[in-house]
């Protein structure tokens, strides 16, 4: 009907005499020209055709539909209906109106209209006026075949726009098949994730600076290896205290505010670390502890922001993106610290990375909101996508992090809570050994200099960032395919523990720096699968208390990291090698895998 009406509208507007006929005047003109072979109506019936170029939209307006109805009235109520000449003319017009198939104008819901067909009127000439009806039909059928590829291309564009709407991306009217990645970047939730990833990069870069600078600082101030281990662990003293209160504050006031305060405090502590080292040992330990206290809120705030801003089907990828920033911060710290120390002295890297935190805060404060409800710039489609995507997978952003005191007895009486705690402890145990001591390992065991050690240590962290995002994408895909959340979390965490265990055992047997770097890359890359295991599991078993749950598990992880960091220092000092401690770590990885698979759950436990 829309096709016929549109065609009728085009034909009516193409010939003024026919438009008058629709008002009752053209009927008399038809009668008067009956014996004189009228050129206007004959030309219109015989020679009007569609112009394929410029075909874009069909506007099925009421006026066009009315015009088509008037043509039908002319056909049946015109003068002397028995006249074969008039009847032939009317039949020709009807064929022109009904030839286009409705399937030509099939539309997806995102394309509500097409622009009017461009019709034009050709002046009659002697050859064209003798064109038979069959020839006209063949001509129109040919034009319809020519228009079909245009229609198919437009349908593909419409389907892409519909898919972007399903992802919560604002519709721009552009062909999204050309730049879906750019469109996704324009969503508010991805902007939030990128800013959180930047903060996590600074978090890890600031702590890595000391891991690289510890050797020249030890030489400058005559520190023993065991005291260097104490300095490394002093960061963890503060880091162990703040996750629980930081998580509770994030649940109550929002991750934006708490994260902002955390970044500015640890950035200032980073800048003043060289001054503290030159002042006294106690001041240095206190400054490192303050830095750890501030960085302890980063993980709970990250979990809080992801839980509020991302639907359940995208949270593993969101965690993978933010943690990619975290691991790339290690890469930046390991590579840039030796360069900055060479050009600006021992204090150079501490000041540069500290000032980057101030720059981040100037961007974070005005551009990021604590949740989708408070953001005036979010599109309605993206907001609906966030809310609808959370149904059945945790909670909506409205419910997540509402605050209030958590049910302590209920939380600690459930084994899925302890599965997360044990997994976090084991993850931090292995992670901080590699983070704090790998430059020392390459320098003392494999005999490479400090700059080369930084490069060999940096490559695995880059792989960890990529592997973490890949693990998140695989996790979300498995859930969308119908695999239970519990099984997905168990699979991902098993890879994240068994893989590093095997890699660390192999690392003990090599003496070539390149091969050692390859095994270290495998260990960290596979451990990144934990991000799609325990790290996202807080949001699933208790989305309302995700920040608190992460704080509890992170505190246990920090305690384990202190033991592993200090223990590694004593092993190196007393046994002269780090290999024995790596073997102990591999055994603990396997034990933790068994515990996780026995008690972990992807179902909601706390309401």
TrEMBL record:
Tell me where in or outside the cell this protein is found: Membrane
**What InterPro entries does this protein map onto?**
MFS, MFS_dom, MFS_Na/Anion_cotransporter, MFS_trans_sf, SLC17A9-like
**TM spans (from-to):** 192-215, 221-241, 253-277, 283-306, 318-340, 346-365, 418-438, 458-479, 491-510, 516-536, 548-572, 578-599
Q: What's a GO cellular component annotated to this UniProt protein?
A: membrane
Query: What is the recorded membrane topology of this protein?
Result: Multi-pass membrane protein
Major facilitator superfamily (MFS) profile domain: residues covered: 192-604
Q: What is its main location?
A: membrane
Q: What are the UniProt keywords, alphabetically?
A: Membrane, Transmembrane, Transmembrane helix
Q: Which GO terms describe its molecular function?
A: phosphate transmembrane transporter activity
For the keyword Zinc, the answer is no
Q: Which Gene3D superfamilies match?
A: MFS general substrate transporter like domains
Which family would the database say this protein is a member of?
Belongs to the major facilitator superfamily. Sodium/anion cotransporter (TC 2.A.1.14) family.
Q: What is the name attached to this protein's record?
A: Major facilitator superfamily (MFS) profile domain-containing protein
């Amino acid at each position: 009907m829309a096709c016929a009406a549109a065609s009728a509208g085009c034909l009516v507007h193409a010939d003024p005499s026919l438009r008058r006929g629709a008002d009752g005047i053209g009927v008399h003109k038809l009668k008067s020209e009956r014996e004189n072979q009228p050129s206007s109506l004959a030309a219109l019936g015989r020679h009007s055709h569609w112009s394929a170029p410029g075909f874009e939209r069909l506007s099925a307006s009421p006026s066009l539909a009315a015009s088509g109805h008037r043509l039908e009235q002319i056909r049946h109520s015109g003068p002397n209906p028995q006249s074969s000449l008039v009847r032939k003319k009317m039949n020709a017009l009807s064929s022109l109106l009904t030839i286009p198939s409705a399937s030509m104008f099939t539309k997806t819901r995102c394309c509500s209209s097409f622009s009017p067909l461009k019709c034009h009127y050709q002046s009659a000439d002697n050859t064209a006026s003798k064109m038979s009806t069959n020839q006209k039909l063949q001509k129109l059928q040919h034009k319809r075949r020519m228009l079909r590829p245009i229609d198919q291309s437009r349908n593909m564009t419409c389907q892409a726009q519909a898919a972007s709407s399903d992802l919560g991306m604002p519709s721009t009217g552009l062909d999204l098949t050309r730049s879906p990645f750019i469109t996704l970047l324009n969503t508010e939730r991805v902007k939030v994730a990128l800013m959180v990833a930047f903060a996590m990069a600074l978090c890890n870069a600031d702590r890595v600076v000391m891991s690289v600078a510890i050797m020249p600082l030890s030489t400058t101030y005559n520190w023993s290896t065991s005291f260097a281990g104490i300095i490394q662990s002093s960061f963890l003293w503060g880091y162990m205290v703040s996750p629980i209160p930081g998580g509770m504050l994030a649940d109550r006031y929002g991750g934006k505010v708490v994260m902002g305060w955390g970044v500015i405090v640890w950035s200032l502590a980073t800048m003043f670390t060289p001054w503290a080292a030159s002042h006294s040992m106690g001041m240095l330990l206190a400054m490192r502890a303050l830095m750890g206290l501030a960085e302890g809120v980063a993980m709970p705030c990250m979990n809080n922001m992801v839980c509020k801003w991302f639907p359940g089907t995208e949270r593993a990828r969101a965690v993978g993106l933010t943690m990619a920033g975290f691991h790339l911060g290690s890469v930046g710290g390991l590579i840039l610290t030796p360069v900055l120390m060479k050009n600006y002295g021992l204090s150079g890297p501490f000041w540069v990375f500290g000032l980057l935190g101030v720059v981040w805060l100037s961007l974070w404060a005005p551009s990021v909101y604590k949740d989708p409800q408070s953001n005036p710039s979010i599109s309605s489609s993206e907001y609906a996508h966030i809310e609808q995507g959370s149904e059945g997978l945790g909670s909506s952003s409205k419910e997540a992090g509402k605050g209030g005191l958590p049910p302590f007895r209920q939380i600690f009486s459930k084994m899925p809570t302890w599965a997360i705690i044990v997994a976090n402890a084991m993850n931090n145990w292995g992670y901080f050994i590699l983070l704090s001591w790998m430059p020392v390992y390459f320098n003392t065991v494999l005999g490479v200099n400090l700059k080369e050690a930084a490069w060999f240590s940096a490559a695995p962290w880059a792989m960890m960032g990529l592997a973490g995002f890949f693990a998140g994408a695989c996790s979300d895909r498995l859930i969308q395919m119908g695999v239970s959340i519990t099984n997905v979390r168990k699979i991902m965490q098993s890879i994240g523990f068994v893989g590093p265990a095997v890699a660390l055992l192999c690392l003990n047997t090599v003496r070539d720096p390149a091969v050692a770097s390859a095994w270290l890359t495998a260990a960290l890359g596979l451990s990144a699968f934990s991000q799609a295991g325990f790290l996202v599991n807080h949001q699933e078993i208790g989305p309302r208390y995700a920040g608190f749950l992460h704080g509890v598990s992170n505190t246990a992880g920090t305690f384990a990291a202190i033991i592993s960091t200090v223990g590694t220092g004593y092993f190196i000092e007393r046994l002269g090698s780090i290999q024995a401690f790596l073997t102990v770590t591999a055994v603990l990885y396997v034990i933790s895998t068994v515990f996780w698979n026995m008690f972990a759950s992807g179902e909601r436990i706390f309401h």
